[in-house]
Structures are given as C-alpha cells and as structure tokens.
## 1
Amino acid sequence: MVRCPGGFGRAPLMSYSSEWRCARLETMFEVYVHVPFCLRRCGYCDFNTYTARDLGNGASREGYAHQAIQEMRLVRQWQLDHGLDEGPVSTVFLGGGTPTILTPSNLAAMVQAIDGIWGIEAGAEITTEANPDTVDADYIQALADAGFTRISFGMQSAVPHVLHTLDRTHTPANVEAGINAANRAGLRSSVDLIYGTPGESLDDWRTSVKTAIALGVNHISAYALTVEPTTTMGRRIAAGVLPKPDDDDEAAKYDIADTLLTQAGFDWYEVSNWAKPGYESRHNLGYWRNVDWAGIGPGAHSHYGDVQGSAVRAWDITHPKVWAQAINEGRVPFAGSETISATEQAEEQLMLGLRIREGLDIAQADARIPQAAWRQFADEGLLDPRALNEGRAVPTRRGRLLNDAMIMQLMEYIS
C-alpha cells in the first residue's frame, strides 16, 4: 500500500487536510477491467484490442465476463498469499477496447463480482468507457441500475472529416444522445477528445472543444494524437498519404483547449484532463497518486506498493485466447512482474507528481535534486513560483507543454 510518510503522492489535496490525505491513500484500492473487443479497429489505435476477425476462434465476447470474474478470484487469492488484504474498492473502471460492446448484464456481472470478492465502498466511483455507437437510452439506464455512476464517451472530434480520418464511425449526434441519456439516468458523463489529427485545422479543433463544452459535461479529456508506426495511420503517414502530426500545431491546440476550458469553468487537474470542481475522475487520480490497483483482463497492468516489503508491478498476458487458457488452468494470467527499485520509484514520483495540479511535494522528492533546479524551472516559467514557495512543484501551462523535457532533466540527478 502507499506509505505515509515516505511514499508517493503526499502533497495535500486543496480541499482536504494532509492527515486525511495520508489515511485515505493508505486505504485506497482500485480495480481496472480491460475489455479487449471493438467493432472495428481505428486506424490510429495501438491499444490491446481485437475485432471478431482478429480473434478468429479465440476467446469469445459471450464468455468474457465469466473469465474476467474467474481472474478476479485468482488475483484475490494471489493478494492474500502475498500478504495483501486489499479492499474495499474505492473506484472501478471498465476500459478497452469498447466495454459497451458487451451486454449491460455482462458489465453488471463484473461489477457485482468485484463487490462480492473485495467489497465496493459506499459512494465509490464506477465508470465505463463507451463508444457512442454501442449504447442507447435503455443500455445506459441498465448501467445506472447496475450501480455505475459515470460514463466516458469516446467523442474524439466534432468535425466529420476529422472523425473520418480517425476511422471513427459515430457522429456528433450520437455523442449528444448518449450524454442526454446519461443525464436522465443520473450518471456523470465525460468525453475524450484527440487533437493533432492529420488535416485538422485550428478552427476544427476549436469547434470540437466548444462542442464538447456545449454538451454540458463536467469532465473533458484531451489527448495529443500519438502515431505508432505499426498502425494503419502510421503506415499511411510513412507512405506520405497523410501528413505527420506537428509538435507546434499540437502545442497551439493545447493552448486553445486550456483557454476555452478555463473560460468555461473547467480546471485542469492532470496534464490532459479538465473538470468542473468536484467532478475529477477519482480513478485516474488514483493512478497519478500511485495507489494500489488490480488490472483484470488481457494486457492489464497491476500495481502494489508493498508486496512483502517491495513495490511491485505486474501485467497480464495480452492475447485473449492465451489469457483465457491460463485462467482455465487456475493460474493468475500474469505475463510478467517486476520489483520497482528505489531509483525507479523516485523516477515515478517525478513523472506522476509533475502531471497533476496538486503537484509534487518537494520535501518528499529525491534529495539529490538540488533546490536550485526547482528554482530554475520556476524562473523559466515552467513551475508556478507561488506553489514553489509553499514547497510544491506545480507545472504552469508552459510547464505542462514541456513536461517530458522537464522531467528528463530532473531524472539526470537521480538516474
């Protein structure tokens, strides 16, 4: 578990005392369930996802929930065998892939199993991602009835030609209908956007951000397009069919998003995430605060801060068929695991703390980083000088844009 003091993520939340913060992090435990199925593979996607054609005679969607629940039981026993009495669960997140390609009863069964195996806290955040094409009002109401509290729609863009380039099949109207249905069902809703798509103009991007705001959601994520060479889009860019994303263009689009969202009452709380106050994704914040979580499903990662005295991460077998075979044989389907060294923990502390608005508690950072280095970044406009005077390293907007470069420089002191 996360240790206080001496662990990660101890900078106090703005709205809570540091004592509450430490006690809360010591008890937080999250569950992520990866659903690796999609109706079709988007050209830019490099996630561990599969279509029916990809899988052939492999693992079936119909049996997936049952196999995931079997893995939950195996993981719970593994935890107990390693001295981890985790639970109750603070947040649940179903991601993918497209979780809503499964039936609502499948998703409900997995949540019910989590409650039966670990217990789910009262008031827990329970989220699923959704492709707007795969849900309707009845589906969303069934999610609410099953205990879900939040739904995250893959909007990506509000501009048809950008959606076409991304190989997305939904329309802006699908997104609006889904959010309206979520509102009626009492679910919080969020949308994900992507900027930097080949052929997307600055005006296209402004249209997408303004449209997302106008939908009335209280949480918006905006991610720069990352193109991997093995994807369909990567091959099209390599062949010169599509232009390569431009760093300056993406920086300009980040500025546009941050300006428009701030004007609309959203606060950034992580480099790529904005929310109205009180509507932050508690599950995602758990990752940045380095709490414990169990990853269920092909390719899912898990993290435990204290496994018999060591911090450990583990990851599942990626292919659904091989993953299912391991489960059917009664084995936790880990493809591998590793102990996180002290140096790696210090590096993670930098990477995680410098991405969130609450920032990094400098007093708990690696002592090899000189105070002059923090002050230099503040002088260069990358860190907020007022927060620095209070002992926290909080990136400015420019610091968020140059986050990776700043972190790499700091890592030179500890690697």
## 2
Amino acid sequence: MQDFRTLPTGPLTLSNVVVPACLYGQTGDLVRTDLSIENGRVGAGGGKVIDMQGAMVLPAFVDMHTHLDKGHIWPRAGNPDGTFMGALTAVGEDRAANWSAEDVRRRADFALRCGYAHGTRAIRTHLDSLPPQDDISWPVFREIREDWAGRIDLQMANLVACDRVEDGGAFRHTADLVAEFGGVLGMVTYPVPDVAERIRTFFRMAAERGLAADFHVDETMDASSETLRAIAEAVLETGFSAPVVVGHCCSLSTQDEARALDTLDLVAKAGINVVSLPMCNLYLQDRHDGRTPRNRGITLVHEMVARGINVSFASDNTRDPFYAYGDLDMLEVLRQATRIGHLDHSRSDWPLAFTANPARACGFDAPSLAPGAPADLVVFNARSWTELLARPQSDRIVLRRGKAIDRTLPAYSELDDLMESA
C-alpha cells in the first residue's frame, strides 16, 4: 500500500505532529510536538527536519487477545447461523479435520503479516489445546515466535474449557507443555456446578509452574453467569501473585447494576487486568434469528477504569466462525471500540488501552514516545480524532526502528489451497 508520504532515511525530526497527551503523562487531549529519530530510537532532537503538517503519531500497537490458530478458516468453516454454538461446532469440526502443523503455521503467519503491516509490535494468541491439538500447535508456535522475533513479540496461552481442568490427566500434560514453551496458562470459565473449585485447581497448577493466567470469562448475555466474581474471589483467597487477565466479561452488561459493580470492586481489589473484545462480542452476543439485537455485549469498561482496573482492547478472532471479519488492525479496534463503547466524550487516556495497558498486562515492553525508546511508530494522515476515526487510514506510515516498513498485505488467495483441500 502507498504511504501518504515518503520519509527520508537517516536521522530526522518529525516536526509539527500531534500526539495524545496521555502518552506523555499529561492531561488533556492532543499535544503538538516534534519527534526525533536517530539510530532506530526516539531521539532528543536533530537530523533532517520534516514538517508533518499536524499528522497524528501513536506508538506501535499491542494486541493482547487473538486466536491465530483459528484465523482465516471462514472460507472452509463458516458459521452457519452466526451464533456462539454455531462457532463452537464449526471450529471443532475444522480443527479435527484440518489443523495440521502446516495448516496452522501458514494461517498464523498470514495473520501476523497483516498485524505487522498495520502497525502492531506485540501479540498474545490463545491456542486451542485439546489433545492431540496441543502437541501439534505448541511446537509450531514456538517456531513462529522465533521466526517473528524482532518484528512481533509473540506470547501464547492455551485455551481449554473449565470442565476439562483437573489436577491430572490431559490438563496436567497441557499445563506442563505451556510451562515448557514459556506460555501463559489459560481457561474458559462458565457456570458449571464446581467452577469455583476448578478455578482454584487452575490457580494451584499455574502457581506450581510459575505461570501467569489468562481467562475467557462469561462470554454470554446470561446475567446468572458470574465466574468473573469467582475468579476475583479465588485470587484474593489464594493470594495468587502472577498477573491475571480476564477477557469478554459480557454478562456484566446484563446483570443487576449493584451486583455488577460489587463484582468490579472485587476485581479491582484482586488487581486483575481486563481485556474487552467489542467487535467479536457485538457479532455473537444477543443474536437471534429474525430478531434485532438489543444488547451490545461490551463489558463495563468505563466503570472498570473508574475503579483503577487496567483495561485494554484487542482484536480477538479474525475471519473464523467466531468473527467473520477483522484483519488484526488495532486501529480498526480503536475505531470500533470508540463507537461501541462510547469512548468519545469521556476520558482522554483511552489510547493507553491499545498500547501501554495491554503491554503492562502481558509483560511486554511498553510502547513509548520517550527519548531512547525504539522508534516503533504509526503515523497517520489525520490531524484530529475525528479525522483519524472517520477513515481506515490505509495510507498510514509504519516505522519500525525508525524505518518505514513495506505495508503490503498478503493476498487471501495465498490460502486458497488450504481452503480447497479441506
């Protein structure tokens, strides 16, 4: 794709750019400033001066909740009715039939090339880890992580339903695998009768292996689904000290207000990080044949931030039965989250939820515009928020270590043979 302008190589100063004030630890909206680049890092000044005429600059994005192993299977495994159960069934059938090491590798690499071209520098992906898929996917993703080192920092978390979590058997093997490959222990929670005990078993196994935790939580409009509360109570009762991330938390949006806010008080006390996935949740939640959806499915992000909870946004699924669209473009996530969650007319520090907040939750190096930080930047042909969010910004400039990258997106036809062979 054509950048909106060509920048020279070598030391330079991007003069007359606008940057969200929160990225400098300031209050307010946008600040006008100069950004210098030297030897691949943000400098203190000098070099060839380029008048950027008010172009907006953000640090490279962090996408902390994705599913690279599922990505881009829609042509061979579409969701028959757009429902959550339709997605579960379609993915399960496709996984059993098609997820060889080569199939997973090629689709994941395709997705990573998309995210990289859009300006993302770090990604956490969940990996379906039911046997025998765990022994197929984890070695592949270790190789992918090594191949992409220096371009995208990649973390992996296993994905297993809570009714399969027990201190022994297949889940013990998966937990050992996660530890061996330097991953994050993951689980999907929903209200099975013994979910609280399974959560405690999960935390015990994570603690024994020194692993952080990442949960898919209450991905439903059913107000009675309160496993987020059980997770917070378990953290407080067990003293689990490694980072904990919870994603989705959709049922909070349909619960009694007082009950939901009381749960958030527990989440804040437990120090749990939250990631909201508004695009996927909007696609799946409150879907009924012939009925217009009434609820958005987005969790209570404003109320969370007001309590000091570390809140982030992420892509989630891309072109698979859980979400038919998407391209691992965090600007698209920012645009849609602003609309879906009414982030506008609100706080001025929401840009942190796409950069520094997810980095902190996952332990990635924090994106920064401070002198000495890597010059991993995304430069937009937009001078204000309304200009930035009104268009896809397909002509953005992506700098890595101060150099503009080739932003050519891979053609979907690259994967045609994988779709046809299925």
## 3
Amino acid sequence: MSDRFIVLSGCSGGGKSTLLDELRRRGHATVEEPGRRIVQAELAAGGSALPWLDMAAFARRAIDLALADRARMQDHPGLVFFDRGLIDAACALEAHGGERVLEGLAAAHRYHRKVFLTPPWPEIYAGDAERRHGFDAALEEYERLKQAYPRLGYEKVVLPKVPVEARADFVLARL
C-alpha cells in the first residue's frame, strides 16, 4: 500500500478536477484523470476506445494508464493526488465489460486507506465534448464506486459541497 497515493473519486462532474488543480496550486503532486486523457487521445487519433463507443476497451486502457501513473509516481517523495485511478477503471470494466478484475487489481495496488468521494452535485454538473454521458449515468457510476471502495477495505470520505479552497482544506485536514 502507498499511504502517499490519495484518490479523489466519486460522481462525474462533482468537482474532482477543480480540487486537483487547487491541490497542485498548493504544491502537491497530482495525476490527471486517465479517462480524460484517453478520450483526448482517441478523439485526436480517430480511435474507438471511447466510453460512448466501446466502454470495455476504454476501461481496459484506463486500467493500463492508471498502472503506468502509479509506476511513474512511485519514487515521488510526497503526497500524490490522483483524479480517479485504478479502482475506478476496474469498476467500469466490471460494470460494462463483465471482466472480474477489481478484487485482484485492488489487492495488488493499494492507495491510501481514505478515499475522497465527490458527491452528486447537479448545480455544477456539465457535459462537454469529453463527458458526453448524462447526470443519470454519473449517479449510477457514483453508486458503484460508493459501494466498491468500502468493500475493498477503504474508508470513504464524502467531500462537502463547498468552495474548492475549503474542499482542499477538508482533504488535507483529514490526512
């Protein structure tokens, strides 16, 4: 387990990336969401490993990228904040591809015992060219993650719906 690797997970469109930016601004190492990076690369290349075309292929790519992110940050001496990561990707693969990978990957590649979840926040949710699913799909994903993390031995900490500076303070105080 790496107590230095902190996961920000939860509802899509709940403010994870904004919180990651604030933590980066405060001098912490951060890793951007694998899914966003994959979507950008696939759109640029005309690929099909996109969540709205082939969710299983997308999730497999996200698992590979999350493993590479962990390896890349292994020697970083301080806290590293991940916008989603391996467990989120494995959850998506199980839900949409039927492959049972979550338990094995989660056991082999642990994060800090506390995982911070952004709750559904419809007032700030917005779709875009890279987030084409609706709020209902975001809620389904949140419910899967909310159940998966505790089942894997993580303590879930639901983030308050407050300005980003206060959210960052909340996360850092709980670590």
## 4
Amino acid sequence: MSLKNIHAVGPKRFGRIRDEMKNEDPNHEFPTTTQMFVRARKMTNGCIYIDTYDDTTKKLEKMKN
C-alpha cells in the first residue's frame, strides 16, 4: 500500500510497450517518458485505482503543457 502510481500493464515489459507505441506513431518516433507514464498507468475494463492520484494528474497536465 505504500506504492503510489503503480503501473497497470501486468507482466508486459516496458520495452515492448515502447515499441508498440513507436509502431503506432505515424512518424515512427519513440514515445516520451510522459507518454510512457500515462500509457503504463491507464486502467482498462472499467477498473479504477483504490486511491486517488489528483496530485499526479496535475503534474501530468503540467508536463503536457
């Protein structure tokens, strides 16, 4: 419970996700660390985090701008 912002990609390796994102990009560029962070923590199937991460979402918005 002490971990915050755990990833939600399961056993899939981050290198594999990075390559998938590169292939999805029209220019075939590698994703930024911010894009990787968001992709790895996106919940699927209607799942939600137990704790809210308002501070993290604010920081992500700041990094995007």
